[in-house]
């Protein structure tokens, strides 16, 4: 029998409109993540909140101890729900995430949060590599515009460019409505 965990990645104040590093459609992503969180709580699924800090007072966002590095109120952890602090894009790297999931008997992970092109991508690939059955709820994820080699992509293009390969090889990629059966 499979056991599911919801992993909420970096849904933190700095990614919202008044934060230091706003992410496109983060409010919508957080609303959908809150629906997933409510469902996971109702079903008794394992819930893991991931919080990113960049260990430097010079960091452009997620500075240690700042209000921007705190969880957004829409998905605030309840007592007893684990919070894992990370310093890298991959939520498994140098954290207890894998050990915690394995200790809980988790076989299936559901991932949401931000940013699609960084922490969601890295965490999803790692989860797949570790053998978990992975679902990414794409409209509960947020992306940011990006430029490289003289090409600029808007946030929607960046999001699609990362969801497509995840869907092809690493995860089942669904909407919140599909996941919840709306």
TrEMBL record:
Domain Isochorismatase-like: 5-146
Keywords of the record: Hydrolase
GO-annotated molecular function: hydrolase activity
InterPro entries in the cross-refs: Isochorismatase-like_dom (IPR000868), Isochorismatase-like_hydrls (IPR050272), Isochorismatase-like_sf (IPR036380)
PANTHER family: ISOCHORISMATASE HYDROLASE, PEROXYUREIDOACRYLATE/UREIDOACRYLATE AMIDOHYDROLASE-RELATED
Protein name listed in UniProt: Cysteine hydrolase family protein
């Amino acid at each position: 029998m499979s056991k599911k965990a919801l992993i909420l990645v970096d849904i933190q104040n700095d990614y919202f409109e008044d934060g230091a590093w706003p992410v496109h459609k983060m409010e919508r992503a957080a609303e959908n993540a809150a629906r997933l969180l409510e469902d996971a709580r109702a079903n008794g699924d394992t819930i893991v909140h991931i919080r990113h800090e960049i260990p430097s007072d010079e960091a452009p966002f997620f500075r240690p101890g700042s209000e921007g590095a705190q969880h957004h109120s829409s998905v605030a952890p309840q007592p007893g729900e684990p919070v894992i602090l990370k310093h890298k894009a991959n939520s498994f790297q140098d954290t207890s995430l894998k050990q915690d999931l394995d200790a809980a008997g988790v076989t299936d992970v559901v991932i949401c949060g931000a940013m699609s092109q960084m922490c969601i991508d890295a965490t999803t690939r790692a989860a797949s590599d570790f053998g978990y059955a992975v679902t990414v709820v794409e409209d509960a994820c947020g992306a940011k515009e990006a430029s490289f080699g003289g090409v600029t992509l808007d946030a929607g293009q960046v999001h699609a460019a990362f969801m497509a390969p995840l869907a092809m090889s690493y995860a089942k990629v669904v909407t919140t409505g599909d996941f919840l059966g709306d």
